[in-house]
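RECORD TYPE: inverse folding
INPUT: structure tokens
STRUCTURE:
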């Protein structure tokens, strides 16, 4: 008789990634599909990162630096923090898992939004801890309610995705300061800032400054988005030294590979690529929101590289219609929101194709409804 798995795993469902271009080709025979579902940088990695990765590939027979020293030092310089305040992981996902392994256990809890990145719930369940989810308020984190729940449930961790995935909305500096003042001292607040490089809002909170001031908060960030290194899986956390030292106790050995470390160090220096990506994203984000409104839809105000749009009707049929036309977006049902779509911002040409396809799908659906009336 096989040994049974831990009972906590009964609460866990494997992560299901979005539809790929290969899926579109296999299912619908579409050979030129565009992928606007995973919030990747449509321009890929910058030249400096690509060149550094190519050089590092010549040494893949060697183990990487287990402590990621060069990368942590580069991040320290880039962010104006002590390298001892930086932990590096195989994507932000591993950072969240390390946080859970370090701070969660049965009988303790983690608080997060009801509609947000699924990995917070995953790592909480993995540790057999209690999940406390709080509904968004008009599409935005309800920080006051989250603070109340943290006190009530003696939470060890609170996750705040800012800007939030999938809505693209954000909480302000003033709101964050009031929230932190209401959080119990035993609770560590984790700000997932995967999309922070795309933010334009002047009142967006500077979490790194809060850390420098001695606040018990952590910022997690990634090289998967604006830096275009999603395929190499590099994420990191910035926080108080004692928190980072705790994370180091549970960090797997050699967790970030040699090529990824080299590319990430180089990506930080490629200011031209970062600024280009940010500039085009800003313009296309505004244009996409205007086009969606012109179609009679309700896009949420976004500070990220994607737009969350409420169709006001079940979105699965629209999602499938786009897929048949070779446009891959993320269905809102995967976030528990069956009337919404999350659309990554692509190149101007990709965004135009998305708008044209969406207009055609909506027109076909309206015609179908009139015929059936």
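DESIGNED SEQUENCE:
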């Amino acid at each position: 008789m096989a040994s049974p798995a831990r009972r906590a795993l009964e609460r866990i469902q494997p992560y299901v990634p979005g539809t790929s271009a290969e899926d579109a080709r296999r299912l619908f025979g579409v050979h030129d599909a565009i992928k606007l579902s995973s919030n990747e940088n449509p321009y890929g990695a910058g030249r400096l990162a690509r060149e550094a990765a190519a050089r590092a590939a010549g040494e893949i027979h060697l183990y990487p630096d287990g402590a990621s020293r060069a990368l942590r030092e580069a991040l320290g310089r880039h962010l104006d923090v002590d390298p001892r305040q930086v932990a590096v992981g195989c994507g932000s996902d591993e950072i969240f898992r390390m946080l859970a392994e370090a701070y969660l256990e049965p009988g303790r809890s983690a608080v997060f939004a009801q509609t947000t990145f699924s990995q917070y719930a995953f790592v909480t369940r993995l540790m057999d801890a209690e999940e406390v989810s709080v509904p968004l308020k008009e599409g935005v984190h309800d920080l006051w309610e989250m603070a109340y729940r943290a006190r009530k449930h003696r939470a060890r961790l609170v996750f705040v995705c800012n800007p939030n995935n999938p809505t693209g909305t954000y909480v302000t500096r003033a709101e964050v300061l009031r929230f932190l003042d209401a959080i119990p001292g035993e609770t560590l607040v984790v700000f997932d800032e995967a999309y922070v490089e795309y933010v334009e809002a002047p009142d967006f909170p500077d979490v790194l400054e809060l850390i420098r001031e001695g606040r018990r908060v952590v910022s997690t960030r990634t090289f998967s988005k604006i830096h275009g290194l999603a395929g190499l899986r590099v994420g990191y956390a910035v926080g108080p030294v004692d928190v980072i030292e705790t994370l180091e106790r549970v960090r797997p050995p050699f967790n970030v590979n040699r090529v990824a470390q080299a590319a990430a160090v180089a990506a930080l220096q490629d200011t031209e690529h970062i600024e280009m990506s940010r500039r085009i994203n800003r313009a296309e984000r505004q244009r996409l929101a205007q086009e969606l409104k012109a179609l009679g839809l309700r896009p949420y105000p976004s500070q990220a590289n994607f737009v969350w749009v409420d169709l006001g009707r079940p979105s699965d049929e629209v999602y499938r219609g786009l897929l048949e036309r070779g446009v891959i977006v993320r269905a809102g049902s995967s976030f528990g929101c069956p009337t919404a779509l999350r659309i990554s911002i692509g190149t101007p040409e990709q965004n135009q194709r998305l708008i044209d396809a969406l207009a055609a799908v909506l027109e076909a659906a309206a015609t179908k409804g009139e015929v059936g009336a």
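NOTES: The chain has two domains: 18-44+272-372, 47-269.
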